[in-house]
TrEMBL record:
Localisation per UniProt entry: Cytoplasm
Keyword Hydrolase among record annotations: no
Active-site residues, Swiss-Prot/TrEMBL: 364 (for fru-6p isomerization activity)
Keyword Transmembrane helix: no
EC number: 2.6.1.16
Domain of life: Bacteria
Reactions it catalyzes: D-fructose 6-phosphate + L-glutamine = D-glucosamine 6-phosphate + L-glutamate
Species this protein is from: Adhaeribacter terreus
Function: Catalyzes the first step in hexosamine metabolism, converting fructose-6P into glucosamine-6P using glutamine as a nitrogen source.
Protein name: Glutamine--fructose-6-phosphate aminotransferase [isomerizing]
Class in the EC hierarchy, top level: transferase
Any one GO molecular-function label of the UniProt entry: glutamine-fructose-6-phosphate transaminase (isomerizing) activity
Parts forming coiled coils: none
Amino acid sequence: DAIEKGGYEHFMLKEIFEQPRSIMDSMRGRLIADQNHLMMGGIREYANKFVAADRILIVACGTSWHAGLVAEYLFEEFARIPVEVEYASEFRYRNPVIRETDIVIAISQSGETADTLAAIELAKSKGATIFGVCNVVGSSIARASDAGAYTHAGPEIGVASTKAFTAQVTVLTLMALMVAEKRGTIENSKLRQLMVEMENIPAKVEQALKLDAQIQHIADVFKDVPNFLYLGRGYNFPVALEGALKLKEISYIHAEGYPAAEMKHGPIALIDENMPVVVIATKDSSYEKIVSNIQEVKARKGRIIAIVTEGDDVIPEMAEFVIEVPAADEALVPLVSVIPLQLLSYHIAVMRGCNVDQPRNLAKSVTVE
Ligand code: G6P
């Protein structure tokens, strides 16, 4: 056991720290920026279907569903294909419209989640084309798919998904860019820039992991609170959901993720001097907007923990704690901004004496309904 954990106290921590490597593994052979090479073998044959697709449906559960939300933003922004992201359990039982021209992307770490498998069987029976994005090679969902791409993150043991999430986002990003290139919906210069930036992501994740000691300190301050709120906008909205899910899964602290602007339609009522609010506020096109959301939280005395881009000199004036991550293109930022949230939930859970790798009531893969 100790050997398998590679010197780390828990599998989850080991898997968090493996991410520079696992993200690289997800890109291996698929992206070589200076050779202008961007190719996912599993998609090549279906490139024409993607070019012609007038809709993509994404089905998944849990953390994989959050990766699906990031993919929605990517495919819509760059490939200009409308995307619906569905909880597999809802999709399979709600009589959805599925057409033969639809492309269904099923995202699953284990490849064994019963609802996701049933959702793709349903879509298949209506003639849709199924792409699996799975981590486990030869898994049921991978086998039931017409084509797909493995995430190559390596075995994930911790029940709370970490490196599988970043691997899914990596693969989905490459897919979206490849489809965008084929459809001619992305400027060449933008595509090149994103390809180069993708190659730099593992180094940025490595840098974000150096925040561990600082995050441990923040965890110590907040470990006994009953509630947490996570806010983000744009590409960081799914990251807010994922940060909240990580915390509740392993620390049993109630946590909610919300789109920052939607806060005023509910969660703002909960904010007082006891409420920690994690705001993912990296420099992007919605930066000014999220700064005003931070002001709204501050006006109600919420305790702000902000994830910001290195060198930000505005938010540190407003937040109680500031965690600086390296700058990245906003479309790629989830791969970096999720790292401190994984570490925060890990340290809080450890300090609360929780079973981090095997939280109560949860299973690594949910193979029954
Ligand atoms: C369970 C796991 C989660 C995972 C979800 C979907 O709830 O605890 O970590 O995100 O299932 O699993 P999948 O294997 O389909 O990605």
